[in-house]
């Protein structure tokens, strides 16, 4: 199980930046497409504001969480979770 | 670690005598705080907050903005957890959650007094946002305190069962908020009007917010009579109170790694399951299935009443077989079942698949001038009946502008009332989803209490709980709705209605893997450390 924790540690370490890149990629794809749709009258202008709002919230919140996931992965890789900690004495 | 000293056992069993008073005082306050927090969410899911506080030129944008404001309350919860958690670890559990209760009640009451966007402009949504943030801060400080308080009074072999009472309060708070909204809606309903809920949608929605002040007074009175937690008193008497619980919780690697484990291995998945099964389900019935809001509320209420005892069952069971496998089984079931459940919910309410009784179709059209404007509003109401007993009302509002050349503005809405059989199918589908909630949420308070030591418990358990439940979970309706919006194209104007479910499913899968591999499968008998 400890070997598996180490392997998964690498997975979380890789997954965290991948998630951040995916969020920015989606933002930079979605906004220009929406601007085009608004310019051609297919979508109302107010949709741009709500889309920006969504991405500001999502990126502000989930980027630090992704860092937390990377840190979790790092601890896991370093074997910090190999032993069960359940009391202050173990901390 | 498996043995508990006689002294510690004595401390726990001695306090068990008054456990029901402790549970009642903690639960009532927590229930009222959840009620306060969820009135906003329930009204946002019904589209009322969007109409009141945001510009009305784009109903979808207004709905999303209202969900964003709803989400703001969740986003600040971890900060409330840190701030009030620190207070709780420094000055005690009792006084801290007395403050959170008053802050919550005051903010809720004031939301009920704010004028709408039409009369206050941008100041209205901004003030609502500020009050919503205060609500979030208060709730952030509340839950960790209540769960810790009950757990620290409980005998180790009944900790899951006793803390499960605190776990019922979030769902019961939702039930109470929907119940008060339904009652107010029922009293103000005018069946002869084009829109029977007009009085409620115009001003009646304020009543549930204003009522909060009375509930808070009762709760403050009950809590004033509570005593400090025995374990905190013991830690304090021994001079072991943490001087800086925040620093100890998050700069000490040993504590921080437990906070991360609790977040990714338990609370993140629990949060998405909680909010998908209850809030997103309500939003899905209202917005995607277009079920009449009164019937959608009734469906959720019946399902909650039927399923709530299972919080206690799983809390009790977690004392017998451990917390981990119950929570993980709930996650697994949710992952497997969400897409089929939501597809069935949609199919049950899809009137395009039902046989219409065309001879019973009624059509009323009314044209009237718009108050204070030279424009005219034409309202067409079509009432349809279907062979299986389902009914639907389709309303088309067309604003004809006096200004030459300006295109008329058309708004369409639909309201479906399900027949009895389909209503019970829907109740069953919601019941199953909340059943998953009871599995993941019932044992989690005891689980969180057990992995952190007393002197930093309030701070340390509050943060993963509010990041997991508040942020991962609370943002669920917003993110899911936004994903569905992004799938809308000209060819598929309603988008992929199930696409948004990948968000809760993905988070639940992450938590399931981490939980299964990293979480210990045993209960910690000694939480006096």
From TrEMBL, chain A:
The chain crosses the membrane at residues 7-28, 52-77. Keywords: Membrane, Transmembrane, Transmembrane helix. This is Uncharacterized protein. It comes from the Bacteria. InterPro entries: DUF6814. It comes from Raineya orbicola.
Automatic annotation (TrEMBL), chain B:
One of its GO terms (molecular function) is transmembrane transporter activity. Gene3D superfamilies: MFS general substrate transporter like domains. The chain crosses the membrane at residues 60-83, 95-114, 120-140, 161-183, 203-224, 259-279, 299-318, 325-342, 424-451, 463-481, 501-521. This is Sugar (And other) transporter. It is found in: Cell membrane. InterPro entries: MFS_dom, MFS_sugar_transport-like, MFS_trans_sf, Sugar_transporter_CS. It comes from the Bacteria. It comes from Raineya orbicola.
